[in-house]
From TrEMBL:
MaoC-like domain sequence ranges: 190-298
Protein name, entry field: Enoyl-CoA hydratase 2 peroxisomal
Pfam families, sorted: MaoC_dehydratas, MFE-2_hydrat-2_N
Organism: Zea mays (Maize)
Location of the Peroxisomal multifunctional enzyme type 2-like N-terminal domain: 26-161
Length: 314
């Protein structure tokens, strides 16, 4: 994605869709996995939490720490410049107007605590909304040695001010999958099955950024104020990590391999130090959730987690 101050030319959908992304190989290890877990609040309230200590420590002789499924949300960063922008020819936009709208993750096998992997990226959707363009990028990650697919991330990005590149009477739309299958969210009217409160630290964004998202919006007060915030805000994917952790703790007895897929829609910013209150509703093998900034009583994230199975104790 370009980082120019304003669009230099209309979006060229044919150029965007024809672009072939280079494969990117990288390694990660248990230090990365543990650092991520701490970044999304694991053991934040209780350093000996029996449902979370295995994310950061080899407890009871376990040979490897366990990996939170949202750890894989970091993988698309390996194809960017560390600021969350992926260069796509044919797209020109103001980077300060970029919004991360949604994230969808599928887990195909337990995520190892260390591995050599390969990312393959493609454009999964491109939509002209008049005043904005919606870009959907799909990142499939495989084990380098065997080729076995680990996971898939689909990131939905809103490029404000970069739309209007097609006939207004017939806006351009392209997608490799039925988008409505993922984006529909239903928050029940009933009382939640469980509620989990996590108070984030004032330094939460500074800790989370060490996992690879160095966008200064989350660390530089001057950049944050230019973007309209009183101070740096928390990464949306960090909030998603908190929400998924709440589901795993509440419905999976702390076992991360119970998760099959995760969807989140980012609704509002979070300031580090705020309390994230995640309300959860169990519906078969799906847990619907809504996360609020408790001090403001504002919903900041909503979505669902699809489980492989429900533990018998529940």
């Amino acid at each position: 994605m370009a980082t120019s101050s304003k669009p230099a030319a209309p979006v060229d959908p044919m150029v965007v869709l024809a672009h072939e992304f280079p494969e990117v190989s990288f390694d990660y290890d248990e230090r990365d996995v543990a650092l991520y877990a701490l970044g999304v609040g694991a053991c934040g309230d209780d350093a000996v939490d029996e449902k979370e200590l295995h994310f950061v420590y080899h407890r009871d002789g376990q040979p490897h720490i366990k990996t939170l499924p949202t750890f894989v949300s970091l993988f698309p960063n390996k194809n960017s410049n560390g600021l969350g922008f992926v260069d796509v020819p044919g797209l020109n936009f103001d980077a300060s107007l970029l919004l991360h709208g949604q994230q969808y993750i599928e887990i195909y096998r337990p995520i190892p605590s260390y591995a050599s992997v390969v990312n393959r990226v493609k454009v999964a959707g491109l939509h002209d909304k008049g005043k904005a363009t919606i870009l959907e990028l799909e990142t499939t990650t495989s084990l380098k040695e065997s080729g076995e697919i680990l996971c898939m991330n689909r990131s939905t990005i809103y490029l404000r001010g970069a739309g209007g590149f097609s006939d207004s009477s017939r806006p351009y739309s392209y997608a490799t999958y039925p988008a409505n299958q993922v984006s529909r969210i239903s928050i029940p009217n009933s009382a939640p099955s469980a509620v989990c409160d996590d108070q984030t630290k004032q330094s939460q964004a500074l800790l989370y950024r060490l996992s690879g998202d160095y966008n200064p919006l989350h660390s530089d007060p001057d950049i944050a104020q230019l973007a309209g915030f009183t101070r740096p805000i928390l990464h949306g994917l960090c909030t998603l990590g908190f929400a998924a952790r709440a589901v795993i703790k509440s419905f999976c007895n702390g076992e991360p391999t119970a998760v099959k897929s995760i969807f989140g829609r980012f609704l509002l910013h979070v300031y580090p130090g705020e309390t994230l209150s995640t309300e959860m509703w169990l519906d078969g093998q799906k847990v619907h959730y809504q996360t609020k900034a408790k001090e403001r009583n504002r919903a900041v994230l909503s979505g669902y987690v699809l489980l492989q199975h429900i533990p018998s104790s529940l």
